[in-house]
Amino acid sequence: MTQTTDSTTVRPCFSASYAEARTKFIAAAQAAGAQLEHHELDGQAGAQGETLAMDVALLGPAAAAASLLVLSSGVHGAEGFCGSGCQIALLHDETLLALAKERGVAVMLIHAVNPYGFSHLRRTNEDNIDLNRNFIDFAQPTRNPAYAGLHDLMLPAQWPPTEDNAQAIAAYIAAHGEGAFREAVTTGQSEFPDGLFYSGTAPSWSNRTLRALLRRHGAQRSHIAWIDVHTGLGRYGHGEKIHAGLPGTDDNLRAARAVWGTDVVAAWEGDSASRQVVGHAVSAVFTECPQALSVGIALEYGTRNRVALEALRADHWLHRYPGAASAGQREAIKRELLDAFYVDEDEWRGMIAGQCRTALLQAVLGLGR
Ligand SMILES: [Zn+2]
């Protein structure tokens, strides 16, 4: 395979389990001549009993290269099926890798930032933490009192929710508005460890591991471009380029648009499928590599399920009330969660790989000029 993103040739890049994805990633990285690092998550096993790890492949010019392109997958666990496929497609893409090398751009692929969630089909990590709410300043915890009023409504003891529950949530939305409801639920909260969009109360293993990686491989760079692959929001097969800078950083948004185009959206401008996220993983690059001009996007692909929130509620219910679900119900909830984050169709995979390749090419050209 070379540069093609034809739908049937990209199929083998994608996997049906974390274990399969990890094996394929390591094999493809070795075949591409990458330098590999394996950062194992101690004390946890995968769904098939396998080792869980954040695997890193480094390619291209030596550590001295001024520019670094980062492609990461699985910050949100089960969303890793998509990002892993994109990474493996890049490892097979001799043309694009040769161009990066020629233009003096080193490439770092970070596979399964949240291997626990990837393997166990959760968006969150081993501690129910949403990693894209975990990169905050814990000395100044942000409180989200609105979530406290919704926690039990979002994760009721009974699933599927009763009619009373649905009416109570509808009443909340009628009183406060859909926007305020979404903000209360998804902004992040640190008070309910079994709740939705839990930020945690300290940096997670993934956070610490990622920061160490950035210090080790990013400290000497002058320019860094980072594409972090996500799924579950927006239109089917469309990759929305969501600015992954710090809120309100107009200069940085302009720099990101210079690389990826004016269709990079910023949540604070209000035209994104996502709400403004505080504490996202890519933000670590600004603190760990302050010498570099860094730009980043979350490449957020839509699936068949336009709103993953209901699938997330069900999965968090399983986690909050262990033993409450029958084996069949558990399986159905996990199936629904996977469907919210991945589409097992060649057409979708082809669109995913093609758009990711375009974003990678834009980054290589933008960094290497
Ligand atoms: Zn995500």
- In N-to-C order, the SSE pattern is HHEEEHHEHHHHHHEEHHEHHH
User: Whole-number average pLDDT?
Assistant: 93
Query: In the CATH scheme, what's the topology name of the domain at 18-127 and 205-310 and 335-367?
Result: Aminopeptidase
Instruction: Give the strand content.
Output: 5-15%
**How is the biggest beta sheet arranged?**
7 strands, mixed
Q: Based on CA inertia axes, which overall geometry fits?
A: globular
Explain what this protein looks like in three dimensions:
By secondary structure, the protein is an alpha/beta fold. The protein has a domain at about 20-125 and about 205-310 and about 335-365: Aminopeptidase. The protein is about 40% helix and about 15% strand. It has 15 helices and seven strands. The chain has helices spanning about 5-10, 20-30, 80-90, 95-100, 115-120, 145-150, 150-155, 165-175, 180-185, 205-220, 250-260, 285-290, 310-320, 325-340, 345-365; strands at about 35-40, 55-60, 65-70, 105-110, 225-235, 240-245, 295-300. Strands 1-2-4-3-5-7-6 form a seven-stranded mixed beta sheet, sandwiched between helices. It starts with 6 loop residues before the first helix and ends with a helix. The model has no long low-confidence stretch (mean pLDDT about 95). The protein binds zinc ion. Zinc ion binds near residues 76, 79, 230 and 232. The site of zinc ion (ZN) has 4 residues, from β5.
Spell out the key features of this protein.
alpha/beta; seven-stranded mixed β-sheet; 15% strand; 369 residues; Aminopeptidase; globular; binds zinc ion; 7 strands; single chain
